[in-house]
C-alpha cells in the first residue's frame, strides 16, 4: 500500500527571510510585487497576519491597517528555488520527492516509515526538524496525494490518516481541499455545497454535467480510485541503498562501517543480477542539514566489495561529519552487465580483460584523477591527429587494425603548430627551423611522405611530412602544407616528436 506525505509551508518566503535575518522574527513584514502600477502583497509573515494583513492586499491599504509594516520586494522565482532546496533536504526521509508549487512538497514514504518505528514517529521527526529550521508548516500522511494535501491544509483531525480511511477524512473538509479551479468552487458555493460530504455521494453523471470532469477526477484521486503521477525532483536510482543511524556518526571508523554495510547490500543485489557498478556515489546527510558525498568510477563493471571499498577509502578523508551524519546513502548511477570470463589455471594474464589490471587502473584513477589514464583506438582518417579516438571503456574493441607500415612519432601534438623554416629549393626538406623562439639546425632528414585529406569529409591542402634531426640528435616530425607557388611560400608546421 502506498503512503504519501504532503507538507504545506504556510509562510515559505517570509520564514526564509527570518532564517537569514533573525531580527525580523517579531517584526510584522510582507513581500510585495508590482501589479498594474501598485505594490500588491504576495506573502505575509506570521506576525503581520496576526495584525489582519492578508495576501492580495495593496501595500497602501496594509499601511492603513498597520502603519509600521515593513515591505520587501518579492522575487517571482524565489518560491521555486526554496522548494527545490527543501525537497533535496527531504530526501533524507525518502528518495521519492516532488515539488508542489507554490508552497508545498509531496513525499512518497511507502516502505520508509518503519525505520522510524511508526508513521506517527516518522511524521513527528519530519515536522520537528523542519520547524527547527524556522518554517511554519503543516503536514499529513494518507494513502493518496489528494487526501494528504487536503488534510495538511484544511484538516482539523489527526495528521496520520489510516489506510483506507481517506473518505472519512474528507467528509468535513471544504471543496477547496480537492484542489479545484476557482470557477468550480464559486459554483459549489452558490449551490450551498460547503463540504465535500454534500456532494461526495451524488450521482457522477449529475456532477459531471454541472461541474465538469475535473471535480470527479480530483475526487477519484483523493479517494484512491485514480492514480496521480508525481513529477519527481530527482528520479531515484534503481540501484540504491540507505542506512539511517540511531545516533549521529562523527568518526572515520563509523563512516567506514556504514560504507561497508551499504556495499555488501548493493553488491549482493548486483551479483544476483549478474551486474556490476561503473559509477557510484556515497552520500552522508549531516544533522546540520548539509550533505557530504564522494564518487568513484571503475573501468570494468564490478561487484567486488573489497575492491570498491578500497576506492572509496581513498576519499573518505574528504568527508567532514561536523556535528554528525544521520543518514548514509549509496547510489550506483551507472550499472552494466558483467560478461563471464573463462577461469584460467595460470594467473599471468596481462590483457585488458584481466581483473587485476582493471582494478589497478581504478586505484590509479582514484588517487591521481579520472583524466590521468586514457585508452585510444584507431580511427579511419588520413590526418594523423584524427587517426586515433578515445575509447569509452576497456571492453570496447577496435573496428580496424593499427597502421604499422609507417614510422610515427612517440608524441603527437593535438594540433600542428606553425614554425619558421628555411628550405633550399621547393620539395626539399628544411635546412633549419625556428620553434618557440629556438633555432634548430637540421643535420639529417628522410624522404617526403605525402598525406592528403579525405575528399568526402573536407577539402584542404595536402601535407608533405619529413622526419628531421637537429644538431642535438632530437628528431621532429615536420610537414609543408601545399605546394610552392609563385610569389607565395607555403606554411610549415611541427606535428610530433620522436624518442
Describe this structure in words.
- By secondary structure, this protein is of the alpha+beta class.
- The protein has three domains: 1-236, Alpha-Beta Plaits (2-Layer Sandwich), CATH 3.30.70; 240-337, Dna Ligase, domain 1, CATH 3.30.1490.100; 411-497, no CATH class.
- It contains 13 helices and 20 strands.
- It has helices at 12-20, 46-50, 59-65, 78-90, 119-132, 145-154, 166-170, 182-190, 204-211, 213-223, 252-272, 305-313, 355-368, and strands at residues 4-9, 29-35, 38-44, 70-73, 97-100, 104-108, 137-142, 240-249, 275-286, 291-302, 325-337, 376-378, 388-390, 411-422, 432-435, 438-445, 449-451, 463-470, 475-481, 491-497.
- The strands form five sheets. A six-stranded antiparallel barrel has the order 14-15-16-18-19-20. Strands 5-6-1-7 form a four-stranded antiparallel beta sheet.
- The longest helix is centred in the middle third of the chain and has 21 residues, at 252-272.
- The termini are far apart.
- The mean pLDDT is 88.
Amino acid at each position: 500500500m502506498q503512503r504519501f506525505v504532503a507538507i504545506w509551508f504556510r509562510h515559505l518566503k517570509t520564514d526564509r527571510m527570518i532564517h537569514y535575518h533573525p531580527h525580523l522574527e517579531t517584526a510584522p513584514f510582507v513581500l510585495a510585487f508590482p501589479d498594474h502600477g501598485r505594490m500588491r502583497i504576495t506573502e505575509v509573515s506570521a506576525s503581520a497576519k496576526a495584525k489582519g494583513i492578508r495576501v492580495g492586499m495593496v501595500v497602501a491599504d496594509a499601511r492603513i491597517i498597520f502603519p509600521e509594516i515593513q515591505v520587501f520586494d518579492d522575487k517571482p522565482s524565489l518560491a521555486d528555488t526554496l522548494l527545490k532546496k527543501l525537497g533535496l533536504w527531504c530526501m533524507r526521509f525518502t528518495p521519492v520527492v516532488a515539488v508542489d508549487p507554490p508552497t508545498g512538497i509531496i513525499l512518497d514514504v511507502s516502505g520508509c516509515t518503519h525505520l522510524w518505528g511508526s508513521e506517527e514517529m516518522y511524521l513527528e521527526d519530519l515536522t520537528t526538524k523542519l520547524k527547527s529550521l524556522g518554517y511554519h508548516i503543516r503536514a499529513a500522511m494518507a494513502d493518496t496525494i489528494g487526501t494528504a494535501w487536503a488534510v495538511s491544509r484544511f484538516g482539523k483531525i489527526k495528521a496520520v490518516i489510516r489506510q483506507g480511511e481517506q473518505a472519512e477524512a474528507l467528509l468535513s473538509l471544504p471543496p477547496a481541499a480537492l484542489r479545484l479551479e476557482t470557477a468550480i468552487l464559486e459554483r459549489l458555493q452558490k449551490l450551498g455545497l460547503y463540504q465535500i460530504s454534500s456532494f461526495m455521494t451524488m450521482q457522477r453523471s449529475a456532477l459531471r454535467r454541472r461541474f465538469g470532469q475535473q471535480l470527479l477526477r480530483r475526487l477519484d484521486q483523493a479517494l484512491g480510485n485514480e492514480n496521480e503521477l508525481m513529477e519527481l525532483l530527482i528520479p531515484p536510482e534503481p540501484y540504491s541503498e540507505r542506512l539511517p543511524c540511531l545516533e549521529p556518526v562523527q568518526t572515520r571508523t563509523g563512516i567506514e562501517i556504514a560504507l561497508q554495510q551499504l556495499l555488501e547490500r548493493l553488491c549482493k543485489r548486483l551479483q544476483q543480477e549478474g551486474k556490476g557498478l561503473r559509477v557510484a556515489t556515497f552520500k552522508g546527510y549531516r544533522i546540520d542539514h548539509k550533505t557530504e558525498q564522494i564518487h568513484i568510477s571503475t573501468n570494468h563493471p564490478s561487484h567486488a566489495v573489497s575492491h570498491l571499498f578500497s576506492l572509496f577509502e581513498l576519499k573518505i578523508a574528504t568527508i567532514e561529519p561536523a556535528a554528525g551524519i544521520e543518514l548514509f546513502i549509496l547510489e550506483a548511477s551507472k550499472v552494466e552487465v558483467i560478461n563471464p570470463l573463462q577461469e584460467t589455471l595460470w594467473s599471468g594474464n596481462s590483457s585488458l580483460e584481466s581483473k587485476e589490471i582493471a582494478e589497478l587502473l581504478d586505484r590509479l584513477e582514484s588517487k591521481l584523477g579520472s583524466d590521468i589514464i586514457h585508452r585510444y583506438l584507431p580511427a579511419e582518417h588520413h590526418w594523423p591527429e584524427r587517426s586515433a579516438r578515445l575509447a569509452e571503456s576497456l571492453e570496447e574493441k577496435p573496428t580496424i587494425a593499427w597502421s604499422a607500415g609507417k614510422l610515427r612519432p612517440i608524441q603527437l601534438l593535438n594540433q600542428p603548430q606553425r614554425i619558421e623554416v628555411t628550405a633550399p629549393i621547393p620539395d626539399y626538406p628544411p635546412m633549419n627551423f625556428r620553434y618557440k623562439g629556438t633555432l634548430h639546425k637540421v643535420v639529417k632528414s628522410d624522404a617526403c611522405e605525402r598525406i592528403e585529406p579525405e575528399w568526402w569529409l573536407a577539402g584542404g591542402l595536402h601535407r608533405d611530412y619529413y622526419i628531421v634531426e637537429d644538431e642535438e640528435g632530437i628528431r621532429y616530425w615536420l610537414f609543408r602544407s601545399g605546394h610552392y607557388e609563385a610569389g607565395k611560400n607555403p606554411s610549415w608546421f611541427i606535428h610530433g616528436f620522436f624518442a
